[in-house]
Amino acid sequence: MATDLALYIPSIEISCFKSLKHLKIDSFGSINLLTGDNNVGKSTLLEALFVYVSEGNSDVLLRIAGERMNCFGARLEYDDEYTKKIFAFFFTDWKLAFGNSIFITSGTGKSLQIDFVYYYETEVQDEGETYLRRKLIDAEQKPNDVSDIEKFEAIRVKYEGEEQLISFDRARVRLRKSQSDMKNIQFIRTSSYSDEVNARLWDKIALTDLEVEVINALRIIEPDIKGIAFLEEPVKSSLQLSGRRRAAYITYCGKEGRFPLSVMGDGMNRILSLILGLVNCKDGVCFIDEIENGVYYRRQPALWKIISHLVEKLHIQLFATTHSNDCVKSFAESVRGITAKLIRLERREKGLKAVDYTAEEVSIAANNDIEVR
Hints:
By secondary structure, the protein is of the alpha+beta class. The chain is 27% helix and 32% strand. Helix 5 packs antiparallel against helix 6 and helix 7 crosses helix 8 (325-334).
């Protein structure tokens, strides 16, 4: 893969993002499989990379914190303290203190900084009109030094010279409650699939040659699948119709009719979510948490071959986590022809350390019963 793609991450250095007080990884490949002990920070690293590549998008921050904390978007409109807790989630030790900062930078030279800040408002006149301008209280100017001025708390996001202030005061900023679609970036969690999300992703590649890639992936589990479509159907609640939704249906070679994909089990629906996410990341980045989740270990080599094919064909950079040794072995045996790395996170006396292996090195270790997971 060419490393001049706009969203390609060649390396990363992270400071004070959640449990990652400091982590530096010198190089990534096209496919990067993250492993390590429980609670070592694999998913946190995935989220940090997602936040970085999204340039600190506030919708992404809210989505990550919301999913982790099971928060409710409606509360953001009236509960400032609740909003503060959501953003405190991203800082080391959950502390929102004046001057606390998160830094993420990569080999591209582009840096992201997220700070907890105070600001005040001052009147400015321009061509006879008066309006309010926000001014930050800087590091030399402690909040107590401007005690006679009404101050507000906010999160400041800085990326490549551009700044965004996300205020906690509901009267000044309404935080968006859901993530807007970002071109060429997908984050696929371990949670169960979503018909709504899958239908939207399907629409983006419908009637293109990428439809075939999705069907080929589903054939890993059911070789006789002929086609797939998302059809509208009623939703029942308490024995009454309560709306409509679009759900995946499949057809079989040699069989009449169409059948709901939902009856095929978690493995089929998980593969659909993975592949739809990938094919919507052309020239971009895809993040998958616990990639093996719901996929039987005997099917994983075939899944990795399709993933490898799509990463190369669509120029995707993939980051995935796993805690499965079967997944690591399948990765080592099946990924060929592109730069692929296994990156193991390890706790050491001096902090978190990332150790990387090529797919070939992982294969040698697996064949000699050497643990790399």
